[in-house]
Model the fold of this input.
Amino acid sequence: MKISIKDIAGQSQGELEVKFAMIENGKGTQAVHDVVTAYRAAQRSGTACTKNVGEVTGTNKKPWRQKGTGRARAGSFQSPLWVGGGVVFGPKPRDFSKTTTRKTRSLALRKALSERIKAGDVILLDDLKLATHKTKEFVKVVKALDLQGTVLFIADPDDQYLDLAARNVEKVTVTNSDTLNTYDVLRPDKLVFTRSAFEKVEARLTKE
Done:
């Protein structure tokens, strides 16, 4: 399958043949689910914490005598039934992360990228070297490509101006070819790769 290449002015610069093995059938759907679930679980801080009866500050003194007051029996100020008492089965700090194998992650990324390419959601730029870090220069590129909705730009890690120029543009995020993952591929409406970044992602996928 081929992807058309454009320059930053939106003009066609030819086509690029996809080198990694595209997934044409239902294979990889479960891998995508597993990887995205693991990714989102890893984003949880897991720091929620409540105190149980033994951890609540207070005295061990019985609130009142057992009989003769007309009130219900009470043995502790730290009772879960009382305001300020302990919490029964409350959350404690925990690690929500899940493990996935390297082959599963690679299959999921291949599946996700294959579907986005077939849907026409992937745009290749011959180059995206900005002369300055000013936002207005980057906005010109976005307008020239007629990008609508949420957009993810994938460039080389050493691009010094792109992150600075794009960080104040609404609905636009930037990542690099080394850290691109399945969740990144699925989330935005459009994916914009530089040619060199796309070739690096291809190299990652063809190693398997």
